Amino acid sequence: MCLLIYFNIFSIAFFGSIQAQRSFDDNSIDPDLLLDLDVLLKKHGYPVETHEIKTDDGYLLTIFRLPHGKNGSGVNPRPILMMHGMFGTAYNFVYTEYFNMSKAGYFADHGYDVWLGNARGTTYGRKHVKLHPKNADFWKFSYHDIGLHDLPATVDYILNVTGRNSLFYIGHSQGGTIFYVLASLRPEYQKKFAQVSLTAPAGFMAHYQMTRIKAVSRHHRTLYELALKTNNMEFPPSWLNFPGILSSLCVGTVMESFCQRAFINFNGEDSGELDMKIFPMLIHSLTTTSVMQNLHYAQNINAEKFRQWDHGKEKNLEIYGQAEPPEYPVEKIEVPVRIYYGCNDKMAAEGDQEEMCRVLKNCTTHKMGNPKWNHFDFLFSKNFEKVLFEPMIKHIDTYELS
Ligand SMILES: *[C@@H]1O[C@H](CO)[C@@H](O)[C@H](O)[C@H]1NC(C)=O
Ligand SMILES: *[C@@H]1O[C@H](CO)[C@@H](O)[C@H](O)[C@H]1NC(C)=O
Ligand SMILES: *[C@@H]1O[C@H](CO)[C@@H](O)[C@H](O)[C@H]1NC(C)=O
Ligand SMILES: *[C@@H]1O[C@H](CO)[C@@H](O)[C@H](O)[C@H]1NC(C)=O
Questions:
Q1: HEC string of 220-257?
Q2: I want to staple 99 with a disulfide (CB 3.0 to 4.6 A). Which of 29, 67, 105, 365 is the partner?
Q3: Strand ranges (DSSP E) for 39-88?
């Protein structure tokens, strides 16, 4: 989804840095930013557990749990799993200056047993029983695999620990894609989701509007071959230490507001709701992804469809029995889904969200009130409580867990 976010911020930061002078010493960086997620949440009064799960194909994922809110356990907290988007991690759900205003903290304080998942390849998913992330084979996965392996392993683990038969689910962007993948290809999993809330989920791509990413997407085959040939299946490669470079250029320097503008402008217009105080956290928590994850979205943007990986005609015939990759059969999804979208989201665009909701069997949409609400407002808005959390919890509370 965010194929160019790095390039965009990076190029601006890079050219800007030619004149910029570093104007800070390390003491000026908020020390919270150097803490691990669990330590950080504990420091702000939340109970946190760390769990490690193993997927059926050998990836080891660290996930976090806030079993209840700050003031102790309410009555029978209800499990809810939150899954981040591409380039993100569980950290996406704890952004904000006040941790009680983060998605994780707020839901924990409102009677939920909050689980924060992490996909393979992220900061919390760089382990495998055999493969090492330095090995290109570690990175040969797309969101298809996250949906078919990481998500069911996480759901089964949570249901086992909590003794429940079903849970609630929140997915942002790719967090929505992986739900569509799992629920459509393994419909037997649907009964484990009592209700699903997706914010700016990435599915259909006919209305995708990011012109620069669209232009790059046309070259998906060449880019894939290049990655294979050079053995660089991680994006951006970790030897670049991209978050480190960005953070030393953009956090606490004269470049900071410049970098912030680049970030805001990335998705088009400023909604006026982004909380830029958390910009350093955003930079600090960026993670790498697999090249295939990015190129799978690129294939779909190019095809204007939501399909499985395109191996090229010959291999498609061999694998799928047809020349074009099959579309994900999302029409099989009967789970109650509510899609939250913004009208100024150029990646998960309104037309695609409404179309997906027509195809899903039990779906409603919630259009965000601010007409300039964009893809990132779901992660960084200052006004979460009123415009997102309250209506979302009110809706989820109408469902029972089995
Ligand atoms: C927790 O308890 C304190 C003291 O009773 C109260 O001031 C605060 O609002 C409570 N917080 C939550 C999230 O319930
Ligand atoms: C969160 O904490 C801040 C600072 O302590 C407080 O002003 C705010 O009202 C709290 N918000 C909620 C939703 O409890
Ligand atoms: C469920 O938990 C039990 C006890 O902790 C464990 O032995 C079992 O392997 C778990 N099952 C799954 C499917 O995770
Ligand atoms: C959607 O799911 C809810 C909860 O399971 C159910 O009450 C409702 O009848 C379903 N609606 C449709 C159109 O199937």
A1: HHHHHHHHHHHCCCEECCHHHCHHHHHHHHHCCCCCHH
A2: 105
A3: 49-54, 59-66, 78-83
Q: How far apart are the first and last CA of the chain?
A: 34
User: Rounded distance, CA 362 to CA 314, Å?
Assistant: 37
Yes or no: say if 285 and 88 are a contact pair by the CB < 8 Å rule: yes
Using CB distances shorter than 6 Å, the residues near ligand 3 are 156-157, 160
Main-chain dihedrals φ then ψ at residue 47, nearest 5 degrees: -75, 135
- pLDDT tens, position by position, for the chain (402 residues)? 444 444 444 444 444 333 333 333 444 566 777 788 899 899 989 999 999 999 999 999 999 999 999 988 777 899 999 999 999 999 999 877 777 788 999 999 999 999 999 999 999 999 999 999 999 999 999 999 999 999 999 999 999 999 999 999 999 999 999 999 999 999 999 999 999 999 999 999 999 998 889 999 999 999 999 999 999 999 999 888 887 888 888 888 888 888 888 887 776 678 888 887 778 888 888 899 999 999 999 999 999 999 999 999 999 999 999 999 999 999 999 999 999 999 999 999 999 999 999 999 999 999 999 999 999 899 888 899 999 999 999 999 999 998
Show the tokens assigned to 334: 């009967």
The three-class DSSP label of residue 171 is strand
Distance CA 340, CA 395 (A): 12
The residues, ordered by sequence, that sit 6+ positions from 401 with a Cβ below 8 Å of its Cβ are: 78, 79, 164, 165, 166, 167, 168, 194
Q: Has 375 been annotated as catalytic?
A: yes
Q: Please tell me if the CB atom of residue 364 comes closer than 6 angstroms to any atom of ligand 4.
A: no
Distance, in Å, from the CA atom of 157 to the CA atom of 137, rounded to the nearest integer, reads 26
Which residue matches tokens 């089964």? 156
Q: What is the pTM of this model?
A: 0.91
Distance CA 231, CA 218 (A): 21
Rg over alpha carbons for the chain, rounded to the nearest Å, is 20
Atom of ligand 1 nearest to the CA of 109: 13
Pick the catalytic residue from 17, 142, 166, 173: 173
Q: Which position has the token pair 């495998």?
A: 128
